[in-house]
Design brief:
By secondary structure, the protein is α/β, with parallel strands linked by helices. The chain has one domain. About 40% of the residues lie in helices and about 15% in strands. It is built from 9 helices and 10 strands. A hairpin with a 4-residue loop joins strand 8 and strand 9.
């Protein structure tokens, strides 16, 4: 392990020592709007692992992979299909809580905005599950990293996240527990992008999907709005006017068909913690310009 990854691993270990609740691990997948005949989407996948199971889960991941590096896309490209299935089955056997936020309403082809929408819904859901520490793969450039920190700090100042909520920009070479959401997110992306359900189908009953768009095209279930929800240190209030009727913004027919055909494996969707339209407006106000 190179010195930078060693340092990241040490910094993360210090975070774990101060954290008592479950830890969320996040990975992202997407398809942009480069082709007119394809529906773009953004996915943020989170696995939730109890604090007292981190070490055992990490050891199991390294054991099944047979080393200290994993990227599911690379494993698939090199035809390691059996290994992918074995790793997927390990995640199932661990009874890992998986939450995925899905956005197909990509306004003005703004993938960065869609990413923020998915992250905010994931953060809020994880906090409702008593998670106050989230680890995600850091982005390559410093401006994007600063934008991620700004998202969390602005959300805390706006009472959209509690003051004790922390995020850590890690690396899969320093924390193998990031491999889990990488695999699950890859599996759902295969379903959405090419209609290949083989990889996600065994996971379908054990994960929850959050529809980050304004409409719910599938039957929804709790949890409901996070408005006025007390989340420990500081008050996690949520967006103003949350709980009112959701926006009736028109959704294009192809997006409707896309959801119905590709998410039919999942009988229910978890209602987002934040009103999607109000969250979208808040994000546009906080981040009016693209990352330069």
């Amino acid at each position: 392990m190179n010195p930078e990854l060693v340092q990241l691993s040490q910094l993360l270990a210090a975070q774990y020592l101060r954290n008592k609740g479950p830890v969320g691990f996040i990975d992202e997948s997407y398809r942009d709007a480069s082709r007119l005949d394809e529906v773009p989407f953004y996915l943020v996948t989170a696995t939730l692992i109890p604090a007292n199971e981190l070490e055992n889960s990490r050891r199991d991941y390294i054991s099944v992979v047979g080393g200290y590096w994993w990227h599911t896309t690379e494993a698939y490209a090199s035809k390691q299909f059996s290994l992918i299935r074995t790793f997927r089955d390990l995640i199932i056997s661990h009874q890992t809580h998986v939450v995925i936020s899905v956005q197909v309403r990509i306004v003005e082809n703004d993938m960065e905005h869609a990413r923020r929408e998915c992250l905010m819904q994931i953060f809020a859901r994880l906090k409702s599950l008593n998670c106050s520490l989230v680890v995600f793969e850091r982005r390559e450039d410093s401006k994007s990293r600063n934008a991620d920190l700004a998202l969390v700090s602005k959300a805390i100042r706006a009472n959209l996240l509690p003051r004790d909520f922390k995020v850590f920009a890690g690396h899969p070479g320093a924390e193998p527990l990031l491999w889990g959401p990488d695999l699950v997110g890859w599996a759902l992306r295969r379903q959405l992008a090419v209609g290949d359900s083989e990889w996600i189908k065994p996971l379908a009953e054990s994960l929850e999907l959050i529809d980050a768009s304004e409409h719910f095209l599938l039957k929804t279930k709790g949890p409901q709005s996070a408005a006025a929800k007390d989340c420990g240190p500081g008050t996690f209030v949520g967006l103003q006017n949350e709980g009112k009727n959701r926006s009736s913004t028109e959704i294009m027919a192809r997006e409707t068909d896309f959801k119905k055909s590709n998410l039919k494996l999942f009988e229910t969707m978890t209602a987002p913690q934040h009103n999607p339209q109000e969250l979208r407006n808040w994000l546009k106000e906080m981040f009016p310009f693209p990352i330069q």
